[in-house]
Specification:
Layout lengths: L1 H10 L14 E7 L8 H12 L4 E4 L1 H4 L3 H9 L3 E4 L12 H19 L8 E2 L8 H9 L3 E2 L16 H15 L1 E7 L25 H14 L3 E2 L2 H6 L10 H5 L4
Parallel strand pairs: 1-2, 1-6, 1-7, 2-3, 4-5
The chain binds zinc ion (ZN).
């Protein structure tokens, strides 16, 4: 099991809790693949986070930004961390340094355009599908970016408005098991490779994400009632220093805000 965890930590962004600087009782919420204007999903999510005074990490894709640049601006105004999640969300780009660099640079440009600050660059990158390749390891320092990890993958991409309470239960269990965590919800869910039926407005399918704000609210309230606190992803990662000698630790340990 330990060797499985080591392999997972080497080849994916799924890291052990000890390696990401999470203190006992601390949680971070991250949201991938957005922004999503369908049914005001991301806007309602931002409302919930403001209401609950929680700062999250929004891992946005260039192609999603095109549909709702105003939402990226709102993420910034509300004080959330905006993370580069590539332009086209092509997992195989992670195997070519040149392709990866283009994905990252193009996404940064889309974000800079959305927030109307031409010099804006993200500090963090989260690769599509979470693959952590040698090309990625070489490209990120050159582009002056760090990886944004997770400590538990709840597979919310397969979840619907009917089943999200199970995601809340299992994520709370993971938080209790690890005494903290960095979790992910997809406020937009892009088409799976080879997925035939993909309709973001089909409310009974997992492509529909209108339930994500309610899921985030439920998780925040339940975790807080159990004594956990949600911390700003910047403060958490800035102090990251784990016990493990895993090379990934250096990704989070050298930040100074
Ligand atoms: Zn993604």
């Amino acid at each position: 099991m330990d060797s499985l965890k080591r392999l997972r930590a080497r080849w994916t962004i799924w890291q052990s809790i000890e390696d990401v600087g999470v203190q006992p009782g601390e949680l971070v919420l991250s949201f991938d693949d957005g922004p999503n204007p369908v049914d005001d999903t991301t806007a309602r999510l931002l409302d919930i986070l403001k209401q609950e005074a929680v700062k999250g990490a929004f891992c946005v894709c260039g192609k999603s930004i095109r549909d709702a640049p105003d939402l990226v601006q709102r993420m910034m105004i509300d004080g959330h961390l905006i993370v580069n999640h590539s332009y086209w969300h092509q997992p195989f780009a992670a195997f070519s340094e040149a392709a990866l660099e283009k994905e990252i640079v193009d996404c940064d440009a889309a974000i800079a355009g959305a927030v109307d600050i031409s010099s804006f660059r993200t500090q963090f990158f989260r690769p599509a599908c979470g693959w952590r390749t040698d090309s990625l390891e070489r490209a990120l320092p050159r582009l002056q970016k760090q990886l944004l990890p997770i400590t538990d993958f709840g597979f919310d991409t397969n979840i619907t408005r009917f089943t999200y309470p199970k995601w809340v239960d299992s994520t709370l269990c993971a938080a209790k098991r690890d005494h903290g965590g960095i979790f992910v919800l997809h406020d937009r869910r892009l088409r799976f490779w080879g997925e035939r039926h993909y309709d973001v407005r089909d409310r009974d399918s997992s492509a529909y994400r209108g339930w994500v704000p309610e899921a985030a609210a439920a998780l925040i309230r339940r975790c807080c009632s159990e004594g956990f606190r949600f911390v700003d992803p910047r403060s958490l990662i800035a102090r990251g220093s784990g016990k493990s000698s895993n090379a990934s630790r250096s990704d989070y340990a050298s930040l100074d805000h």
